[in-house]
Design a protein that fits this description.
alpha+beta; six-stranded mixed β-sheet; 4 helices; globular
């Protein structure tokens, strides 16, 4: 396993276990996190968040409209010296308490053994499924 693949596996485990110390150790202090979709299921505004404090505040806001967010399955995880990707099946309870399923796709840029930039395509993919009538 490539060392960046292991870094992403550790990041997923830390997210699952709400181990934010490990999450912050994996992310660069100057992390850039790009939410490219919509705030459809969360209060995160699409845009670019820079720095651990800004990213942490956005991540904490994820559960403002949803609860019981879980990573159910890692469908694919790959990494090289510069770029990594994670494709995950996730679930959550919506505002009405109904269980919803979605897939998340994150792309990572690495430098100096840290994640320095993330592109989060999850909400974009989810909104497209809503628009196509695949999700109620």
């Amino acid at each position: 396993m490539h060392h960046h693949q292991q870094l992403l596996a550790d990041l997923i485990d830390a997210f699952k276990n709400k181990d934010f110390e490990t999450v912050t150790n994996i992310l660069s202090p100057d992390i850039i996190w790009r939410w490219l979709g919509t705030e459809f299921i969360t209060d995160i505004e699409p845009g670019t968040y820079v720095g651990l404090e800004s990213v942490a505040a956005a991540l904490i806001g994820v559960d403002s409209k949803i609860s019981d967010y879980q990573i159910d399955e890692v469908i694919d995880l790959a990494a090289s010296d510069r770029i990594g990707t994670i494709w995950m099946a996730c679930s959550y309870l919506d505002e009405n308490g109904l269980k919803q399923h979605m897939e998340e796709n994150w792309v990572f840029l690495f430098a100096d053994g840290k994640v320095v930039e993330v592109w989060d395509y999850s909400r974009m993919a989810f909104l497209e499924k809503v628009r196509n009538g695949e999700v109620d």
